Amino acid sequence: MRASELLGRTVYAPDGTAIGVISDLLCAAGEDGLPRVRSAIVAPRHHTRLLGYDRPGIQGPWLIEKLAGWLQRGVREIPWPEVRLDP
Amino acid sequence: MTDQPEPLRLDFHLLDRQIVDVDGRMVGNVDDVELDVDRGGTPRVVALLVGQAVLGRRIGGLVGRWLEASARRLSPDPDPAPIRIPYDLVMSVGSEIELRVKASALGEPPLETWLRKHFVDRIPGADHAGE
User: Fold this and answer.
1) CATH number of the domain to which B76 belongs
2) Closest residue in chain A to residue B9, using alpha carbons only
């Protein structure tokens, strides 16, 4: 499987309604040192790059930060075991 | 063990990031990432993929198809394989991705193969360029 097959995929709620699309995948190093996906960043609209401003502690010029905040409104992190890729 | 951000963001930290070898020589950009799904259904990163055809498939659409087609045209192989860099060879992930090995250990990109075959090898004296 390739990352591009997951990024942009629609994520569904247990009742089958679409929540949004996978915008990024957060990984943590496993015992073997290889990064394992632990959660998905799901955006309510189309797949878009989040400019990095969704990371905690990242600050930038006020205008850019506000613009990034507006672009990524409704973005949420969903633990990987709860990510449903089929309705 | 790879020196990497915690958490590692697959799209933000890996995709399209520049890769350099152990000597700082440019290898290419991360065009896609190969994942392997374990028994529990969790994907893990096993390799970085570099190649025009990989990028074309990732982008999709008209531009993506053109990139894939031109990659096939430039490669002697009708289905060109990407340069596959096992993640074990990644030393660190930062503003660029540094490898533990030399670029020469990873194979030649199709564009360089095509240029060597069609241009460089035809230059008079190219067969004893090292002398």
Assistant:
1) 2.30.30.240
2) A26
pLDDT per position in chain A (87 positions), as tens? Answer: 999 999 989 999 989 899 999 999 999 998 888 999 999 999 887 656 656 666 666 677 777 777 777 777 778 899 999 999 988
Q: Which residues of A8-32 are buried (b: 16+ CB within 10 A; e: fewer)?
A: bbebbeeeeeebbbbbbbbbebeee
Q: How far apart, in whole angstroms, are the C-alpha atoms of residue A34 and residue B1? A: 8
Q: Does B6 touch chain A (CB under 8 A)?
A: yes
Cβ–Cβ gap B4/A7 under 8 Å? no
Give the distance, in angstroms, between the CA of residue B32 and the centroid of all CA atoms in the same chain: 8
> How many structural domains are present in chain B?
1
Is B4 part of a structural domain of the chain?
no
CA distances from B53 to B33, B79, B88, B113 (A): 13, 9, 23, 15
What ipTM was estimated for this complex?
0.77
* Residue at token pair 């289905």: B79
DSSP string, B38-99: -TTS-EEEEEEEE-HHHHHHHH-HHHHHHHHHHHHHHSSSSSPPPEEEEGGGEEEESSSEEE
